[in-house]
Amino acid sequence: MIFSILADIVVFIHFLFIVFAVIGAVLVFKWWWVIYPHLLSAFWAAMVITMGWICPLTPLENSLRRAAGEAGYSGGFIEHYFLPIIYPEGLTREIQIWLGAGVILINILIYSLVWYKQSQS
User: Deepest of 8, 56, 94, 97, by most Cβ within 10 A of its Cβ?
Assistant: First the structure.
């Protein structure tokens, strides 16, 4: 039971990391210091997805699921709603490259707005 809960927590953290990597730059409007962890996160996310690497959270989650005696991603709320976002079906190498480019482009756009706002002050 505890391993299953821990695996769910890892999935939720994974989801939050993805959201932060993609649109976390908006937090820079309020807290300037967020730029440092955000740029590192966005770079890591873009590299993982474009290079086809496996995020360390994935093997951690899988090992926790195995320790809980689970074989798949059926079950609770987190698995039902967040796993299809993190691990979509039909994900190809080409789509991964486009997603990685999207992470970079979204962040370039947001940071351009941050820079523009700062230069207007």
Answer: 8
